[in-house]
Amino acid sequence: MKRWLSPILTLPLLLAACAQHAAGPTSQPPEPLQGQSTLGLTGQLGAHDPTLFKAGSTYCVMSTGVGNPTHPGGVLVHRSDGGLTGAWKTLGALPTPAWAVTTYRAENIWAPEVVYNGNDGKYYMYYAASQFGTKNSAIGVATSTSPCSTGGWTDRGPILRSGSTTDHNAIDPSVHWDSASGWWMAWGSFFGGIKLQHMSSMTTFDGPVYTLANRPGVANNPVEAPSIVKRGNYYYLFLSWDKCCAGVNSTYKTVVGRSTRITGPYLDKNGVRLDQGGGTVMMGPRANKLGPGGGDVYVENGNIYFAHHFYDAGENGAPKLDIKLLEWNGHWPYTSESTNGYALANGGIYRLVNQASGLCLDVQNGAASPSAQLQQWGCNGLPAQNFRVEQMDDGFYRLRSVLGNQDLCLDITGGSSTPGTDVRLWNCNGQFAQNWHLEDMGQGYHRVVGQQTRLALDSVNASTSAGTEVRTWGLNGLAAQNWRLERR
User: Fold this and answer.
1) Does the predicted model carry a pTM greater than 0.85?
2) Which among 107, 113, 224, 469 is annotated as catalytic?
3) What is the pLDDT of residues 80-107, one digit of tens each?
4) pLDDT tens digit sequence for 291-329
5) 3-class secondary structure for 219-241?
6) Can 440 be counted among the known catalytic residues?
7) Which end of the chain is more exposed for a tag (fewer CB within 10 A), N or C?
8) 224 catalytic residue (yes or no)
């Protein structure tokens, strides 16, 4: 939930980003160079739930206001006259609408979204007013012709509401222009998940309400902060998972899915629907940048940028603005800073070191034969611990053993999706049981996840003993499923 921005922070720290949503590119643009994701921002970068847009030649940002029960904080306004990288400057806060406080007990205004409507020449800012932790929420809208300022905005009141009887939470608005069907709004947080509805005007809705994302079986259904962009034949839905607003204890991460229709269903890399718990992690913690999420897309000159916040471990978890230029592997987005799995050298030889045990993935007895079992063993530099990383279609990799004739690949026995299934070597065949997604888990480790099974390489019972077999298991976020790939 997009609360944050503690009143103990000084206003100059509270810089965020505001997002312009124009129609996404209808043809696939050139792919940016790998390793160019992070822009290197300067200036006042304190922010939470940024949304980024451009008015004339000026880049602007809006962000969640300062939380205060007696003087609720309005949306913060930020500007850069020097391009996307800054220097950014915090201008101050917009007035808090009275109705947001009296009706919804809002202590601050959350998660703004700014779009430009060329038909009337106005900028529309959508925002959330909510009683934290409840569905007593509403999405309001304000309009302006001079958006990069703390004045000149006219509040139009709430346009979408939720309460105890609704199956959704009316926060985290995200508005997308689709060239084929017009304006759409996605919204939602926890409770009933992420919703989508067509807009008959900038302030009214029509047609059915679609559910785009849910996390059944996960306590409290922690999914929020939708943002949609069109690239080529796909619509991409970005979401935030898990816990925000807790500084260094935040577990936020950014996930993505895609669909050929704006209404979904959206699928992750493994073909799992996002409304059934799916989601491919695009950004996790990296160095001092914890809990990256609350993001929004911005399109300019065929490039797609992702503005988001993170919690700075070097400043006691203060929320900061970051902007990434999205890179693409096939038809999937990634950022080179936070997903180094994509930057692995195709054809390079690596060993995999387990985070929990410090032991290496190893072929038992160095057997260069089909059905040879995988185990963890003391790292020794022998061929049984070396694997050639080979890129397969659309962002997946296979791991080819260098043993023997080098025609054996890491494989799931029978392609089974049953947790506990053995991992072995088998003749390289290009089938899904040999394709693995490398999910960044932070601190230099990756989780090795089967393409269709959605199970991870795991040491049995998280053992730290040499000789323990390596099998597949359900994703659990524990260190026994994290592996560091070391170039040989």
Assistant:
1) no
2) 224
3) 989 999 999 999 999 999 999 999 999 9
4) 999 999 999 999 999 999 999 988 999 999 999 999 888
5) CCCCEEEEEEEEECCEEEEEEEE
6) no
7) C
8) yes
